[in-house]
Amino acid sequence: MIRLQKAVLTVSFCLVAGGLTACSDSNTEDLHSYVEEVKARQHTKIEPLPEFAPYETHLYSAANDRDPFTAPVYSAPRSQVASGSGDGVTPDFNRSREPLETEPLDSLRMVGTLERNGNSWALVRMSDSTIHRVKPGNYMGQNYGKIIQITESEVELTEIVPDGLGGWMERQAALALSE
């Protein structure tokens, strides 16, 4: 067994020595010539960074300018504000608001009608799926809309909206039956 180990060790040493002799300087001539060629190449010069003009600051004087974060307020000439074009129409600010006046008219949906003893009611659904029964004289929408008439296909109402000149004007609107 010891002889076998010595034989394996001798063979291994011979193989390693033979492998190292294969890496002699005679086969690396082309490598040395390539390295010399790369070293002899002309080095390119790196161009300097361009110079930038300094940033000019602006001093914001808030006392003289309009606040950029608020919407501008346009005012009409005094003669137009005083007269207005509303023909004396104003909403009743003293009455208590009804539940359907908390949402805009375009978010409300008419889903049906009821009729009993000659009285008509419309069924109106709010965006939270709550259904309310309304009749002529009730209010709905955020523009003080008063219900004038209820038919099988729509609810007709009159809204009171600002006229843009400091007054109010009436506008006809309708809420159609949703399919």
How would you explain this protein's 3D organization?
The chain is of the alpha+beta class. The protein has a domain at about 95-175: SH3 type barrels (Roll), CATH 2.30.30. Helix content is about 20%, strand content about 25%. It contains three helices and seven strands. It has helices at about 1-20, 30-40, 80-85; strands at about 110-115, 120-125, 130-135, 140, 145-150, 155-160, 170-175. The strands form two sheets. It has a four-stranded antiparallel sheet, with no helix packed on it. A three-stranded antiparallel sheet has the order 1-2-3, with no helix packed on it. Strand 2 and strand 3 form a beta hairpin. The longest helix has 20 residues, at about 1-20.
